[in-house]
Queue: 3 jobs
Job 1
Amino acid sequence: MTNRESMLEKLADLDTQHAVAVAGGGQKYVDRHHARGKLAARERIELLVDPGSAFLELSPLAGWGSDFTIGASLVTGIGVVEGVECMISANDPTVKGGASNPWTVKKAFRAAQIAEENNLPTISLVESGGADLPTQKEIFIPGGRLFRDLTRSSARKQPTIALVFGNSTAGGAYVPGMSDYTVFVRGGAKVFLGGPPLVKMATGEESDDESLGGAEMHARVSGLADYLAEDEHDAIRIGRRIVARLNRRRTAHLGLDSGLGGTARPAAPLVEQRAQRACRNQGLAFAEPDADPDGLLDLIPADLKEPFDPREVIVRIVDGASADNGRPFDEFKPLYGTSLVTGWAEIHGRPIGILANAQGVLFSEEAQKATQFIQLANQSDTPLLFLHNTTGYMVGKDYEQGGIIKHGAQMINAVSNSTVPHLSVIMGASYGAGNYGMNGRAFDPRFLFTWPSAKSAVMGPAQLAGVLEIVAQQSAESKGEVFDAEGFKGIKDYVEASVEEQSLPYFLSGMLYDDGVIDPRDTRTVLAICLSVIANAPIRGTDRFGVFRT
């Protein structure tokens, strides 16, 4: 099987997984929802964002591999509304009435973090029955952070807007309660701390939905509703007008077609014309990549043990040569630390510093090179892109004596304390401390995406299983016992299979360890959107790092 055939097979499976997420609770519940005159979550988003603009959906596979529906009954992502990039969060009422499960909460936390770091307004499209009660113990205590985040967003002058289409009960009532602006749909919105049954049980009082928490009551009596919409389309229209009046800096955007995961290859000439026109409006100019991004499917080996040249990735995602920049990629220190490629480029006219693994292993030279490069990016206030394909830092007596630990620590120090925005894409392997040095999830990149070819774990499955076998053998020998290699083979095979499964991109994405699994051909588009988003907040490097051990 060729590299292309292998990747296309993975992408077909990825499309299947995304289709499950889009299906929500299934056709039966989607039809029932539509029969009530209601729009689905993604239909609401499509009407909310500017026509022809991109919607970068985040964490669409949240909860994959768990007992919960893929997507975690919540759609989150970044879209352009009235020219303003916004974080959009929409409950999916076709999945258990939009009830929140533990993965919903984690997905909402990630969305709030992105909104905070990138100075984005938040628009909540609300229709949720509250917490999934059987898992309340995993939701109730941490879930309070959702409300804390809303109020802190307001304090930072990052506006919060709630469009309430249906139920927003119990703790969920505080979503509109703590938002700066609220829009309630007449006859649809129901917002109360306790519904009629709970009120009856707690106080003996007889009540109905409308008098207790209906849209008209909140618009006329309680004052919780700032705007009363006639229907869902009207609520979305009002929401767009609220954003238009926020007096925010309007970000010219790349009018790219939207799609699941925020990606749709911009093949149509009209789409590319929009992108170039938007960049010119921002004073940006760019040329298309010098090599066709479609070639990425041929580049990535089916077996990650086979190396590939990351320069062939870079030339397919960065702006091509033009009269303005002369060269698509200016490599830094090309003859030193050659298993890590570093250099400067632009993506859709925006500057970026790139660190990309070449031969997999990070030696002392690569770590020192990366440390210097990260410092230079901070001096010039340039965002950084990390392209992962590493098995980690080199081990062995000579390398330990040569200082691999302290040199790796220098690199991790630089990554940890760098204050320019970081973007990460896991192309292939991302093992061990190499994941840390290359700015993995624990180091809070602004955005992190994986390719279907990616794997991430403490080490490769075969290596990990082999280490366990060696440890077991040494343990047996220390007790004077004979090691049963044949008997241990079953354990070894089980461990290797488990680690293999847990290192795959769907598993990692389901755990919210990335922001989505993307088609490699869409990497340039996704990164362009991310670079536009991070420009909403000041980009300032630091000259303050921890102690660099020498």
Job 2
Amino acid sequence: MLVLGISDLDHDTAAALVGAEGPIAAIEEEKLSRSASAGLPQLAIDRCLAEAKVQLSSLSMVGVACRPKRGWLRDEGGQWNAFAPTNGNLGVRGSQDELLWKLGQLRTFRSLAGPAVPVVNFEHHLCHAASAFCPAGFDRALVLTLDQCGDMWSGLLAIGEGGRLKALRPMRFPNSLGWFYSRVTELLGFRPGRDEHKVQWMSKEGSPNFVPVFRKLFSHGPDGLPVLNLQCVATGRNGSATFIPEIVRELGIADPSSVHQGRLRADIARSAQEFVEETVTELAETWRLRTGATNLAVAGGLFLNVMLARALEKCTGFERIFVQPVAGNPGCALGAAYLARQRVKPDGGRQPLSHLYFGPRLDEEEIKAVLDNCKTIYRYLPSERQLLDETVRLLQDDKIVAWCQGRLEFGHRALGNRSIVASPFSPFVTENLNRYVKRREDFHPFGLSVPAEDAGALFDCTSNCRFMSSIGNIKAGPKELERFGFNDGAARVHVVERQVNPRFWSLLRKFGESSPAPVLVNTSFNLFGEPLVCDPRDAVRSFYCSGIDALVLGNFLVVKP
């Protein structure tokens, strides 16, 4: 039994193939096309099918994470068009043109699949919920999803029990914390829908002076759900909804250009972050008490915010919390596949998510062909011992190393297969990575990868740090690790399990033999504005277009002179 899941067609599209034992393949379209994606993720679909060596016609079912007609009807004549972002293709979400476009995409796909393969549409937020609950490993849990807008909902509360999901309360758009966070992103001069993570990291430099201002934007309904105060919303210059001038002035912004300078920007970011954390933790706690649930599973684009995930772990009464690591739109593909599998096999099992290595795998012959074609000088290291010894030697010499191995990660976080690594004990490592490799602002923190056996002694962190979907706290270890901390010792921690990624685990342990701790700085292997590198050609191009010193590509080693 094989089922295919396809994400919402709006943006960041993806496909996922799931069998009786769990996910087999999953990848985002943009990692293959190397450009922003919308519409049917045909490249991702083809790659998932190729991974399992099957044809589209042999699938048991296909699930799609959107119900276009229902979403369009919920828009009540397009009254919320000003609130919705463009999808990059047709303009405003909820418009009749986009409805017809989506229906045309689905009609084309159904003709490709043929009459023998059922294609079923599921609610966008139900797919988010399934992507969180099905791989969480909980028998019963409260499920909370939050994003900007999907099928004209901005969130969903549900109960997962016995392999089934029961919707409790939808959150109707525009009552959207995701919309709020995107508007703050835009207000601070970043790209809404792309740079929300920058607001999160900028917030650690500021003070929460404007939380009372942001509280004016939302009230709480009888169910504890946030309700947007429409009196605080106006139409901006580009015709989209934004904050009224009074709110902007209360944020201390006299001139729109002034917010791009100085401490004010960080204070607004910190206030928005604390407001969202406060609102979401109160909502989760209210429904914990109503349902008696001891576990929580969350998904939706808002939960890509790892500081929000940590707030849920620290400030609510749940015994266990699972944060779907691919919480945004691509994760809906996985949720749609889970729901489709349930339709095909109602008593199908639910396996906890152990890893995210569901993308294309590196091929040694392809690597060699690309390196030869690029006239690259390289070494082939046939044994793992040689490979580890040479890599550690480079790291000890303060070199920045691109570590590209095995199958590509699903999601945007590098978890040791498409990573850039460096020694945390190297001077100026964060400055060099931010300025000469990542080409981004200095307020971005880096992940610290550590073997699971050593994590407890060095960091206070939860199981969500296996996927870098939460943060931890530095509690011991060499003094050099403290410079990677923020907000009183918080740090981005990546816990590496030997059975999940044995080669990266071995690199960490080998590095620890000659270093103060088995810890490496870990950031994603990609150029600025691009997705994770996928194949050998992407890796070589990104290597030579950045300040990376060495590339470990499978068993091949390339070192810049």
Job 3
Amino acid sequence: MKITSATPAATSATPGLPATAAWQPLRILTFYRVMLAGLLTVFYYMLQDDDPFNVSDQALFSSILLSYLAFGVVAGFTTRLRWPAYQFQALLQVFADIGALALLMHASGGVNSSLAVLLVIAVASGSLVLPGRLAFLFAAVATLTLLFETGLASLSMDSVAAGVGDITRAGLLGLVLFGAAGLAYVLALRARESEALAKQRGIDLADLQQLNQYIIHQLQSGVLAVDPDNRIRLANDTAHTLLGLGSDSGMPLAEAAPELAAQLQHWKQDPQWQAETIPSRTASSELLPHFSPLHTAQGNGALIVLEDSAQLAHQTQQVKLASLGRLTASIAHEIRNPLGAISHAAQLLAESENLNSGDKRLTEIIGNHTQRVNTIIENVLQLSRRSASQPQTLELGNWLEAFRNEFLQTEAIAPEQLTLTVEPPDLQVRVDPGHLHQVLVNLCQNGLRHAGDNPQLTIQAHGVNSGAVQLDIIDNGAGIDAQTAEQMFEPFYTTATSGTGLGLYIAGELCELNQARLSYQRADGAGSCFRIHFPAQQTP
């Protein structure tokens, strides 16, 4: 996140607001000051013969009026430049307003001047520009200035009664100033509370909008919003991928996806109509659309949700396999005890001296098949109590070299029968080492078993452009036919008379636990290639 430092002018303005918005009240005040001083100047000089302000001191009134106009113009520029700081400018301008208006009143009849009401406006505007207790400071300064001016004027009056009356009027005007300051204080307080509430609501709405956009864009289902004219207005990333949409909004649905547009028309005519699958433009799977009405100000549109039928089938299969796994684990526990009794009885029977060769052959068959059933039970129980993945970052080259040496000793094969290639040598993957070891043992043993008389295995690891890593286990066998390739990752599917059909299924499940994917493809030339695809590691 990029953080920029605020200017001194901005930091002294109202906290929590953008710099431009914080300076807006002071800009309005400077505009009002220029307009007021300009109008007073125009009226004074154009109607000087009529003397609309009852000016008693022409020189003082003229000089103060022109100075006040010049100050307003200069204040407008400094406010525009936001220099000096906000609070300093606001205090200076409000005190200047009070002083200038008091001098203009002194030059035009004192407290009896028609300009006295402008002093109330000056205090109220200062209370809005700098809200808080400063409002009462402005009222106090204006009242004291007014009383000082009245007292100074009364010293030159001939009538004592007139001086006392002016002081009374000044006191009443001071009360009006404090009333205006109190009212402005309350209004400013309410305005700040409303502003803070509106700001918080705006932040909440922005956060909610970002959350909704994130959820919609991260959905694995495609989402489209279509207006009453069947034009695409909104589409998430998944919908763009599945339908191959461009970035232009407003594209007619019939142009982007004709089959989907036809189904939408059917649904509009009959809302109870069941949608059919349509082909995806960018994937080999099919899409199942779901339609919902979308009411807008322009009319009734539609919300379309596209689900990948292959993904739905995969999820359904995973749920069924999970239920089947729990059931088979329970059955395996129940079978294990009687199976052990049968195996033990067969061993005791085989030790009898009264058995002929035919009976001994039957006991061997019982022993072999009980051992095979026990292997199946062990595999099933392994599935049910499979531990969670504990991934680690592995230096793949060193780890595979250690695995190769161990496998050569375990299987008692020559070193030239298992070759290893890692490119580049510093490849890294994040995986559970125990799970990866179990998968590679299973795949390499299958390769030795089906490679023929002179088995040759090759383990190749290489990186791809996206940052992912591919690990290939290649043999020199005859390969696997298409029908077997489609079903060999399913549980209990096997082409061998002595196999359990769980080896590849367990290997695939272990890969998925580590965010990897196990797949099969024909090797170049001849043989089989089992590929483990590790996704790119996320950088913190």
